[in-house]
Design goal:
The chain is mainly beta and 203 residues long. It has 2 helices and 13 strands. Strand 7 and strand 8 form a beta hairpin.
Amino acid sequence: YSPSGAILGEVVVPDGYMDFRAADAVNGGFYGVYGRRVLAFSASGALRWSAGPFTAPYLWVVLDAPRRRLWVVDGGTGVRVGETTLHTASAVYHFDLDGNELSRATAYDYPYADQLCLDPTDGSLWLGEWNGGLVLAHVRAVEGLFADVDSSFWAYDEIGACVSSGIVSGYPDGFYHPEVVVTRDQMAVFIARALAGSDAAVP
């Protein structure tokens, strides 16, 4: 809806219900959970992409807008023990905003990770659960490149090779900024690193 109450878009779910999980502050639209899948919608309600199916019907989504990333936490499968449901292996998935999976990790042995907090300093994820005591897990993004260099970028592999070889390292803000023009001085540094093998070996 618009601020005036006009309908801007509509999403029709065939059966059951869909949970709203996060507003998309980058592209507009939102993320929802339906049928063990995460769905990304545009502002008009059109489906942009979906991921899954995951193990659990209850999924959590955390948007990292500055880095254009999305965390998805899969609650795992539930095992009833007395009055408590133990969940085996909450898996944590990391996506870019085009729906490409970047990495995944297992956060706990048997968690129900429903307390989530994005660390604004580095985009990592804190997960918490009260399971007879406070249980915390810290999951960091595992990516080879930068938040502004998607795997579909035309020079993705070449930039990755330069990073692995110590030729480039990006900017202090954690981004690569592929749109910035390289100066002659910077190019001289890159060539020297490539020929010598490292900064320390440059004569």
